[in-house]
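User: For a benchmark we're assembling, each entry needs the component sequences followed by a predicted structure for the full assembly. Here are entry 17's components. Please fill in the structure.
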Amino acid sequence: MRRFDLVLPNSLEDCLKILAERGAQAKLLAGGTDLLPQMKNGVLKPALVVDLTGIARVRQIQNGNGLRIGAAVTAREIEVSRAARGAYLAIAESAAMVGSLQVRNLATVGGNLCNAAPSADMAPPLMALEAQAVIAGPGGARRVPMADFFTGVRQTVLAPNDLLVELVVPPPGGHSGGQYLRHTPRRELDIAVVGVASQLTMADGRCTRARIALASVAPTPVRATAAERSLEGQVVTPEAIERAATLAIEAAKPIDDQRGSIEFRKHLVRVLTRRTLTTALQRANA
Amino acid sequence: MIVAKQILSCTVNGEPVEVLVQPYVTLLDALREDIGLTGPKEGCGTGDCGACTVHVDGRVVASCLMLAMQARGRKVRTIEGLAGTGALHPLQDAFVRHGVPQCGFCIPGVLMAAAALLEENPRPSEEEIRYGIAGNLCRCTGYTKMVTAISEAAGTLASQRSAR
Amino acid sequence: MSTMKTTRDVKGVGVSIPRPDGPEKVTGRVQYVADIQPKGLLHAKLLRSPHAHAKIVSIDTSAARALPGVRAVLTAKDIPHLKKKAPTRAHAVLAIDRAVFMGQPVAAVAADELAIAEEALDLIKVEYQVLPASIDPLKAMLPGAPPVADAGTEADTSEALAHSAVAIAKSEAAAKAVNISQQARLTRGDPAKGFAESDHVLEKTYRVPMVHQGYLEAHAVLAEWDRNGLLTLWASTQGSFNTRSEVADVLGIPENQIRVIPVECGGGFGGKIRALCEPITAVLAQVTKRPVRYVMTRREELQAGMPAPQVIIKLKTGVKRDGTLMALDAETVIDSGAFSGAVLAVSAVFLGSMYKWPSFDIRGFEVLTHKPSVAAYRAPVAPQTIFAIESQMEQIARDLDLDSVEFRMRHLIQEGDPMVNGQPWQSNGAKQVLARIAEHPHWKTRKQWVAAGKNGKRRGVGLALGGWLGGLQPTGATVRLNPDGSLAVLTGQVDIAGTNIALAQIAASAYGVDTDVVRITTGDTDVAPMTGLSAGSKTIYTVGAAVLQAAEDARRQTFEIAAKELEASVHDLELADGKVTVRGMPDKGITLATIGKKGNLYMSKTPPVLGRANPAFSQQAPGFAAQLARLEVDPDTGEVTLLDFVIVQDVGKAINPLGVEGQMQGGAVQSLGMALTEGLMFDDSGRLTNPSLLDYRKLTAADLPNLETIIVEVPAPAGPFGARGVGEPPIIPAPAAIANAIQNATGARLTELPMSPERIALALVNGKH
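Assistant: Structure for entry 17:
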């Protein structure tokens, strides 16, 4: 890596002060699992790096009326969190898939989202559970729904002097279940060729809310809204699931790259949507 | 551009350490170049191979992805701290007797991953062992003897515990 | 499975003794090049071409030189005495006027810190004129393709002989296509007639991309000159003498002005034979008068290492309905990258030499492209070649409803049969390993096992067979008796495969002592006898033979001294428990320690025992392996779960079964990666699209089952205690075994590696069976 200066704020206030002054030349560091490789490859050459790991406020998980996950909570912490593994299982599942254990003990949900790769594993379940991002900036704090958080490849709504503070996930309610699945060529140390999160909420044998979010098939993680609509109000039969799985392909605009072709990615959207919906239904009814 | 060094205060292998480090070096580089512990290796620098695996506050991390200063106030353990000054740790002993190390480059990382696995899961199944070291690439051995050795060491540690 | 002996039971050959460097390795104490921290160390970085083919118009290094902490910035202009046509990659120290692959070094920096060196690279301004590039080898072969080499550059086949000792006559056909750097043609009989008389003709094209050897320690070298102009290189290398010769040749200095110290090598597999970073690091050290260390990053290794070549094989086989072989037509195209150096002969010869084809026409081409040039990778081009022929043979058996094993066994070569170049096959265990794997329960129960697949997963069982001729290279060794009765063995052999303990066991058994009292040292180029590469599966076969002969020589000298002391005939003496005694008279003896001491006493008339041997070799000892895979395929995602893998290998004599097993397992896993997940993927502009270990996928422990090993011993007539080479055979059959298992599971015959989930899933979706 090229040389840079490093500051170690102990509080949110100190951090925001630094960002207000020098945000434009700075990069925020939590787990470093995306930032450091990019700096080593020369893709990013910030003059200043701000270490967030000394700020307790962004490192907590709290479960009350909804789940609050600090932006610098690690993937491993989420993976094993009893709170997350309860009503928000798809989030814990996605966290469990990131890289390897050595990476999950560093990687943070905030980093995963702010790096905003199309393949960000934790994005689809957060979208499917309709999480909101709490962002602090010079003008104060604001909330942005996950569905609006990503604006392009590696681009988010965050301004250079903004800080993602935490994710707030509303309780999905009784009779709700979800799953995140992804396809990778290896069982570990890999990145999603396609990732799908499905969340189904049921009442009286019908689906009251369906949320399906896809990773790695568009410039940003996206919701498969046509597929969602096809399920809401319906009895969720295998045929209904198959229909939704086919409709989910419409939301996918994948590219051909060295990780997968357009044809394969579309095929996987169908397969993984079918599988996650099937499991979501089982979990909702359990 | 002149960047001032910073003081890194932490515990390494049970000993308090205070060194001056450049803020732009990784924990891996600081351990190897400033603290003199060359056991952890750089295999890729991007967290994709596990050769740099150390424990920070008891958890395995890719030390090539941490800045040295992010270890401030924390407890770091490297391969050099796995055995005491006396006998080999049961994992190390099992690795030797089963002929595990070939080129040896992955071994410090694998042992740190295996040690953490056994601390958390004293009786792992074969599958759990394989996933426990899945973040450590090895090109020489094909992993089979590693899994056997880790399984045996788990048994040894269990008997040592029950003997106490 | 082997049993491990404690040091109390230790004797010699045939015992599973753990490597003595184990404790140093498990405690992190072993030193690799990057662990050496000399005073005043400078760090080297190379600026690399971002274009596959470009003219270098100008380079401005002024800003880089001005950066504080930078001690040297070099371009080719700064090292004019090296300016010559670059016949090999190593000679192209820095690109002179043209870059011929993306990643080729164009400038070099030495600085106080790595971070400063990286910043210095940013400050070097290079003006390029991009030229059309030859990327795809099939296009590069055509007349009119953008030329890669300087006209008149000779093909470099020197390394081929060390690896495989396969000889073929150079093809005489004039190469109109400028990028064909080697050609071969082998024919026998009338293949056209053979095809005309065949009932079953199968034509397939098999493709294997470039793959990286995957050693976990990247190339690394530390260079320092002394005031006498002596260069010392601490190198991660598979052959210190080879490194010395190459560096001497490139730098234009005498070989004995260079000392190469082989530091523990963190994996080589053929990729650390040729010089790569040593010359430029040496020049930086010379210019700065400081020790300079260069360690490649992983990205540099993948982009600009020396990978295994891309191989494209067109096979056409003609067979009668009853399985009689009629004709083989084969074309093998090997993409060598920007410099020649692929082992073309192996592919051309192996295609037709595993089974007895009555007629064949085999053509081989080495093609140059604007990509990083290749080097060896464990049995170079054999896994790719066997992938082709063993897939084809299996498909023939399937199509004709013949038993896979019987079909192969019927046509398999044996000792005395001619290879396609006329060379006769030496004694080998091909039939034995095939027979042994056919006896394995996984093979015998395959039909029931496959039928028992559930949860929608499709099961398959497949096998394949492959072999390696084994390299040959002259070598030397000494065995010394110490004043305490212990032995010191000296070779120059870099121990990359655990061969040192096996060599010690050979010395122990040949001399007549316990391995416990034998210590073996790998000397550097100043100290050791001339030694060849740790490659070609030849260490035990050649260095083992040298150590055996040296130990026998030492034993002879010992007995001569004892005979004089005991006033007996050498023929009446025996050696046991550290003592030479007269047979039948246990009280009449002299200890080895006494003999050793006498050879070192002031004014003594007893010579010191120094056994020595310096053999050259002519007889190869091929090693064969048969492998079996049991796997499950998820037909929707194409994911493969490998459930069982069995390796049967003929090693002649397992000097150290523990070490042999490790070689069998490690070799197989390397080509399982080639089979399932690995490939260097270049785009049309010659840019590597997967330059990280995230996207260059080596298999993890979670992707693999336990690998079962079965050692077969068909003694090699000239091998030490009957031993054959061990390292390369196990990498050869795995891709074909996997392809055959996938075909068994899904009906899809995949002919392009890696057999990724995408390829499998889409083959099923698109009904390509």
